[in-house]
Design a protein that fits this description.
Blueprint: H1 13-19, H2 21-31, H3 39-51, H4 57-90, H5 98-111, H6 114-119, H7 125-135, H8 140-167, H9 169-207
Helix pairs in contact: 2-3, 2-4, 3-4, 3-8, 4-7, 4-8, 5-7
Length: 208
């Protein structure tokens, strides 16, 4: 049994412990057609979990890629069949406002297929890029190609970095324990300097 997940990722540990790869696939799948779900966070947490010895990183990556592609394709189908009317009527319930939707549409129309790859790394765009690709009339074959590239790159980058962090998590904890007192002292000094500067500035203003 490896060490626990750090910081806010620890909140996802019970989910990963109970549902494992299903949690990774399910949350990424839901996020990728507009449902507010912590898809990217669960990917990072699962990869750290794998690095700490709890999951298999290859299975995490495979599940994440498949879920990301599938979720975006559901989004594409929603956009293709329902169009803007569906988004304008129901989008607010999944935090897709008309303004956010139109902004994303402009990105798509200006940048074409490459935005499908870029959107994968941008919070807000990631959740709606499939839907917008469908409403703007991008061909499914073109969308699918760029979507696969984006999903593989996104999972590859985050899973690799988080997995390496998970492998070193014991050393990370040791370093934090070693230097946290110094960090608090530095933070206290910085706060004191800032307060002193604000007080001196106010005194100069009143004396002027």
């Amino acid at each position: 049994m490896g060490p626990p997940l750090p910081g806010p990722l620890a909140d996802l540990a019970p989910i990963l412990h109970q549902y494992g790869y299903a949690a990774v696939g399910g949350l990424i799948f839901l996020e990728d057609f507009g449902v507010p779900a912590p898809g990217e966070t669960i990917l990072i947490a699962a990869a750290v979990y794998a690095g700490a010895g709890h999951l298999n990183i290859v299975l995490v990556a495979v599940v994440a890629v498949v879920a990301a592609i599938a979720g975006d394709n559901i989004g594409y189908l929603i956009g293709r069949v329902g169009g803007r009317r569906l988004i304008h009527r129901w989008g607010r319930y999944v935090l897709i406002t008309p303004e956010r939707f139109h902004t994303t549409e402009r990105f798509f129309l200006h940048h074409g297929g490459k935005i499908v790859v870029i959107a994968r790394f941008v919070e807000g765009l990631r959740q709606v890029n499939g839907i917008v690709a469908g409403t703007t009339g991008m061909s499914w074959r073109r969308f699918f190609m760029f979507n696969v590239i984006g999903a593989v790159l996104w999972v590859g980058v985050w899973a690799s970095l988080a997995y390496l962090a998970g492998k070193k998590i014991g050393a990370i904890y040791a370093t934090i324990d070693r230097y946290q007192n110094y960090a608090w002292i530095a933070l206290g000094i910085a706060a004191a300097v800032f307060i002193a500067w604000r007080v001196a500035r106010r005194l100069r203003r009143h004396s002027a």
